Amino acid sequence: MHLGLGTSLQNFNDEWLRFVRQLGVTHVFINGPRLGHDGVLEFDELLRLAKMAEAHGLELGGIENLPQDHWDEILHFGEGRHKQLENVCRTLENMARAGFPVLGYYFSIVKVWGHWRSYQAGGGRGDAGIKSFDYELVKDAPPPESGPVSVDEMWKRLQWFLEGVVPTAERVGVKLAAHQDDPPVEYLRGVGRLLTSHDAMQKLIDLVPSDYSGLEFCQGTVAEMNPDTVLDAISRFARQGKIFYVHFRNIRGCVPAFDEVFIDDGQVDMLDAMRAYSEAGFDGVITPDHSPKVTGDSDGLKGRAFALGYMRAAMQMVEKE
Question: Which ranges of 81-197 does DSSP label H, i.e. alpha helix?
Fold first, then answer.
């Protein structure tokens, strides 16, 4: 297994790359980069970023999420969806040429909404800044401006997207990794959500079967479904070869209300989780996710450093067992 970390395009610089290399990271992700002005991630810019990582002895984990306006017509099933699908396919071609092996994506109209505590408001161990979700705060919230959408309709849109993009992914060799809906509730503000259970994750895998369509396995979100079934989910999907990379995060509670806590302070035994990945044959990249904000942590790197150290030690323990 390999230790990874992602960051925004703004923070993807020599200082950040040195920092992550010093902490034992081997693979890097870039989150939602805007590289060009035509709804496509341009090859020259992708190659420039790849060469920056290579210069620091780091490998590419992939791209996490496209800019929203690169595929909002796909999500809303608007008239411009065909052009955006063409652009996503061009992006995959450019990613392959530049050496990016995975595109992580989150097929949801409504993003995380309903946190009653943010990173600035404390709440964690030693009053570290954490996020907390409570569905009661949003259960009666109005739908977005685009209106309500059923779960079945969202599945139809996802199927259309996958049927259009998977052939290109297979041809160029870039994997499509779907993130679970966070929080995993069936509806949020009147909009249907898709990956809210283990069976729903399996449904995505079976929807358009391909070696290049699988999961960005967010362990924290899976724990939000039910912390007691996380190890089963790891085994189920890793044994199928459908976990393309991992977000390694811990929680307390689960839907309808939960806290995102330190990696060693939640309900899931994270060493057992690391063992589960290894025993199921997973040999991909694992990254920390939503690290609490500690005192003096202006850029979030201190919290991530704590998580990375824990994860590297856990990996080494598992490797020696």
Answer: 81-98, 151-172
Which among 232, 229, 106, 275 is positioned nearest to 176, based on CA atoms? 106
Instruction: Give pLDDT tens digits for 253-266.
Output: 999 999 999 999 99
Could you tell me whether strands 131-134 and 115-117 are parallel, antiparallel, or unpaired per DSSP bridges? antiparallel
Of 42, 63, 53, give the one whose Cα is nearest residue 20: 53
Question: pLDDT tens digit string along 155-209?
Answer: 999 999 999 999 999 999 999 999 999 999 999 999 999 999 999 999 999 999 9
Sheet hosting strand 115-117, strand order edge to edge: 115-117, 131-134, 257-261, 250-254
Enter the tokens of residue 287. 């990254």
Residue 92 near residue 172, CB atoms below 8 Å? yes
What percent of the chain shows pLDDT beyond 70? Answer: 99
Contacts of 202 (CB under 8 A, 6+ apart): 236, 237
Predicted model pTM = 0.95
Domains in the chain with CATH codes:
2-320 (3.20.20.150)
- Give the 3-state secondary structure of residue 7: strand
